[in-house]
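Backbones bend. We report:
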Amino acid sequence: MDFKTATLPNPADKQIQEEFNQWAAAGRGDEMEAHHSDITEQTLALMDLEPADRVLDLGCGTGWASRRMARTAAEVTGLDVADEMLRRAEQTSAEGDNVRYVWGSAEKIPAADNYFSKVLSVESFYYYADQGKALDELRRVMAPAGKLFILINLYKDNHYSLRWVTELKVPVHARSEAEYEELLRAHGFRDVAAHRIPDRSPTPETYSGKWFKNAEELRDFKRIGALLLIATK
C-alpha cells in the first residue's frame, strides 16, 4: 500500500520519517513492543477501553499497540509519519481486523473533527517539533470529553533518559512532568494528571547495552518509570 497521501507540514516531519524508515528497515520497530510492553499494558488498563471506542494510536510504528487495543475497541486508527513502519504494520495485521493504518503528521491528522473517543501515544510525543500544534490537532479530532494518554520514557524527571537527547539523530523535547502538565492546560485540556509507570519487566543480571553503566542503573531507570500524562478534551 502507498501510504504517502498527504504533504508533510514541516521539514522536521521529513527528518523523522527518514530516520524511522531506517529503524523499520533494521527491524527496530519490532523491538519497541518488547521494550515497552509492560508500561503499555499498564496504560491500557488505565484507558478502560470499551467496545464502542474509536481510538487513535498516534505514532503507531509497526502497530503492536494498535492491535492490542483492537481486541476491545470498535475501531483503531494507527497514524505514523514513517511509511515503512506502516507497511510492516499492514503485513502483521490480519485481514479484516478493525485496525487501519494512516500515513500523516501529528500536526495534520487525516480525520474528521470530534471523531476519536480516546487517543494513545507511546514513546513518540517528544519527537514532535511543535508539540503545541500537535495538541491543538488532537483536540480537533477528539470527541467531546475524549481522553488523551501520552506515555513517554524521555522526560527531565528521569535523569537516565536525558542521555538519549544528544545520541538520537533527530531533535527531541526533554520537558519535565510539570512542564507537560502546563502545556496540556495551555492548549485547552482539562483534568490533566501525571502518573509514573514503573517498568516491571525482568532485568538481566548483567547489562551489556550502551545506555546504562550496569544492571543496577537499568533497574533504577525502570523503577523511576515512564511518564503517563492523562487529559480530557
About this structure: The mean pLDDT is 92. DSSP finds seven helices and seven strands in the chain. The beta strands are 54-58, 75-80, 99-103, 116-122, 142-152, 190-197, 226-232. Residues 11-232 form a domain with the Rossmann fold fold (CATH 3.40.50.150).
